[in-house]
Write a sequence for this structure.
């Protein structure tokens, strides 16, 4: 029964944020203008810049930013107790993530659809742009390399997810063609979801897998290569061909999945077995502050969202007010996924007693995606009576499809960054989309197989940096938005307060990890962590000088 109260209070809070707080921020702070000509119209090229229906764009944005992170983060962070995790997800969604995502869309929209790193030159300065884009490229490299491993692992451990995952691509291509021909969205949505769920059922009946060894590589390594070949092709296709419809269908599929999970809570009324505050943590478990705030990123606030918002989403914004629907409501969707994840990994559907729960969560990092799939599939089984074979396949496919859409967008975004570098530094080959894609994929494969050997798991080596690096990036994005507001003569406290909190938590988490890597003698992570921390300091100092100069000029004008 406790789970029902958690769900009710969480959903009421996030819906209040959508109906009231987001409207206030959109109208009074960002002042979204329906008459403003968006980059999608100004630079419409039929490929990257394409005016898009806000519901379809919401599907792309939501599934691109979600990935597996709003599942992984909460499913790990519940180790400290469900109360702090739930509070951070709900409050973070309302006051941090929604404002951050909508703000990044608005900022990019006002600067010709440039990425948040590239536009920082106009807002802060050239030096900040260069440093900013280094952090962005590092985050994208981590996400792409690691999500390739995540999907490959899922294909190997859950072969029943292979058929529906690849079937979704074929469905998306067909729907993309029909949307282009102005077919009605509602029947397309219904048909697409039906076909997708039929493929999920078929996948549970007919699991597919690669040979355990082929071409001198393991099955997991071969999946990683196949996934990057696919991502390279997908990143070069016009967004309406695959990216938009794939993400839209995945978004609708997630909505159905959320309805099943939330509905099951109200039918089954499961109790919570996880502790509200865990007092039985393992020895050497890091402090909840600041680590909770970098463990739960997506679902509360995430720098990766700013990359997507200013990378692909801003280039498809039909009208500027759509930024509220796409950005803030996308964050609410992710918050809802994070919230139900916490319920699934905290309740009796995962562990029937507190003692059993502590066995599953024996240390920080235990549980994770496996706990979500097991707890969630049991929850749907108890609520709706569906077989656990089907429900576990359904949730495994949800994780794979989310990770896949993030990887699709991630490689495209990496290509954008490389092209922007080519234009900024006048390196003409890099400005070419095909060359930039090859460079992006080559960097990911070099990390995967160069650092990880034949397993292709090299991304996992630098993945521990993601938490603090990602949140530092979120704070820097909020900083750029804040300076834009200050220059426009608008209140900036609604972005400065979240920026300050996230920066402090992420910076201290980075320092803790730096000491941890130093003690381990992991000099690669020591170097990269130190670089990220120094970059954030330099960008903050540069921004401070810009704000001080702006205030000084204002005083002189007033005098």
């Amino acid at each position: 029964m406790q789970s029902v109260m958690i769900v009710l209070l969480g959903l009421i809070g996030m819906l209040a944020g959508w109906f009231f707080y987001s409207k206030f921020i959109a109208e009074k702070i960002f002042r979204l203008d329906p008459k403003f000509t968006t980059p999608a119209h100004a630079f419409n090229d039929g490929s990257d810049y394409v005016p898009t229906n806000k519901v379809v764009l919401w599907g792309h944005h939501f599934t691109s930013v979600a990935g597996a992170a709003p599942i992984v983060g909460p499913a790990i962070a519940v180790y400290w107790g469900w109360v702090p995790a739930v509070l951070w997800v709900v409050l973070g969604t309302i006051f941090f993530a929604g404002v951050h995502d909508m703000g990044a869309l608005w900022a990019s929209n006002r600067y010709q659809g440039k990425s948040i790193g590239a536009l920082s030159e106009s807002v802060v300065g050239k030096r900040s742009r260069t440093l900013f884009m280094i952090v962005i490229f590092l985050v994208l490299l981590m996400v792409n390399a690691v999500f390739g491993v995540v999907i490959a692992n899922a294909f190997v451990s859950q072969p029943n997810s292979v058929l529906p995952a690849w079937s979704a691509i074929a469905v998306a291509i067909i729907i993309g063609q029909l949307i282009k021909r102005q077919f009605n969205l509602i029947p397309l949505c219904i048909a697409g979801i039906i076909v997708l769920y039929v493929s999920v059922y078929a996948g549970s009946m007919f699991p597919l897998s690669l040979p355990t060894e082929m071409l001198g590589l393991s099955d997991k390594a071969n999946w990683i290569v196949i996934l990057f070949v696919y991502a390279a092709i997908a990143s070069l296709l016009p967004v309406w061909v695959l990216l938009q419809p794939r993400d839209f269908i995945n978004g609708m599929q997630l909505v159905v999945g959320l309805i099943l999970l939330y509905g099951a809570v109200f039918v089954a009324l499961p109790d919570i077995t996880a502790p509200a505050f865990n007092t039985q943590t393992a020895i050497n478990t890091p402090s909840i502050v600041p680590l909770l705030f970098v463990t739960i990123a997506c679902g509360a606030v995430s720098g990766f969202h700013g990359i997507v918002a200013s990378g692909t989403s801003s280039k498809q914004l039909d009208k500027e007010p759509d930024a509220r629907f796409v950005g803030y409501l996308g964050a609410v969707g992710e918050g809802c996924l994070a919230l139900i994840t916490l319920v699934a990994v905290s309740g009796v559907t995962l562990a029937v007693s507190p003692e059993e729960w502590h066995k599953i969560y024996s240390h920080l990092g235990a549980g994770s995606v496996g706990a979500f799939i097991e707890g969630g599939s049991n929850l749907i089984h108890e609520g709706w009576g569906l077989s656990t074979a089907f429900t576990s396949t359904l949730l495994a496919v949800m994780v794979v499809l989310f990770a896949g859409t993030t990887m699709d967008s991630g490689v495209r975004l990496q290509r954008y960054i490389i092209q922007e570098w080519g234009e900024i530094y006048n390196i003409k080959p890099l400005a070419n989309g095909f060359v930039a894609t090859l460079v992006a994929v080559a960097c990911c494969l070099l990390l995967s197989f160069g650092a990880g050997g034949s397993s292709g798991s090299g991304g996992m080596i630098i993945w521990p940096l993601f938490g603090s690096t990602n949140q530092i990036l979120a704070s820097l994005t909020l900083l750029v938005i804040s300076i834009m507001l200050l220059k426009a003569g608008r209140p900036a406290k609604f972005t400065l307060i979240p920026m300050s909190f996230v920066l402090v938590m992420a910076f201290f988490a980075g320092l803790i990890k730096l000491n941890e890597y130093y003690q381990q003698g992991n000099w690669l992570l020591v170097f990269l962590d130190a670089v990220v921390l120094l970059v954030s300091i330099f960008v903050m100092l540069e921004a401070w000088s810009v704000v001080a100069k702006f205030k000084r000029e204002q005083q002189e004008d007033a005098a």
